[in-house]
Fold this protein.
Amino acid sequence: MIVVHGGCGNPAGGAVRDEAPYHRALEEALAAGWAVLESGGALDAVQAAVESLEDCPLFNAGRGSVLTGDGEVEMDAAVMLGSKGHAGAVAAVTGVRHPVALARVVMEHTPHVLIAGSGAERLAEERGLELCDPSWFITDRQHERWLASQGTVGAVALDARGVLAAATSTGGVRHQLPGRIGDSPLIGAGTYADTRCAISATGHGESLIRHVAAHEVASLIAHGGLPLSDACEQVVKNIELDAGLIAVDAHGNVAMPFNTAVMHRGFRRVEHFETAVIRDS
């Protein structure tokens, strides 16, 4: 099972002008993740799916990230492997093509969980990740984005061995203060995975941080005995500002709630070779 999202929000007029390109981009991300999931594991799958979305200028991550108040791009990302509780994250990076890949480097090749700014970029260079001039990330679309709120991309997956993984990547909030870090790279806020479930969140980052949203889903399952769908619905309901999330549990159940007008998300699972791309409930 693999699930992806392209962020939630409230577009002007309550509708997206042209749905088809977003659906195609989600389908491409699902295909990228699925190709890896069939032969590899959940962590490889969520990384591949998110890298596909990072390269798409339609979404607020990677190439397509919104601009800070200084007119620059600062990107955050995180990955987490549920079976071992391992996690890695980066924040405020400007020249790394795939921040999600760098987050995995932090997880697998350092003793740390979160590295920010120039230190993260130096690590990317040392590990041979693809670098890009910061101008490559800035597209004309930033100036006429259809989302009126904060968007993000993410993926969660369950592999054939029962391993769960989550990944999230974002360009932050339009006109944010330089150095601002949102929920996406914060383990337990925007990204979380354990042996029960995997979650990637999107929406108003500060609210997701304050509610420790992703971990709260896991806690409601582990300690409250709630099924995945109820836990996810309760967390989103308790957040007053924009919020949405995707989640999968160890049994292959999926939840994708949100409280905004639109949230692009989709899933694919092996039972029926089913692919679904949807934007609302």
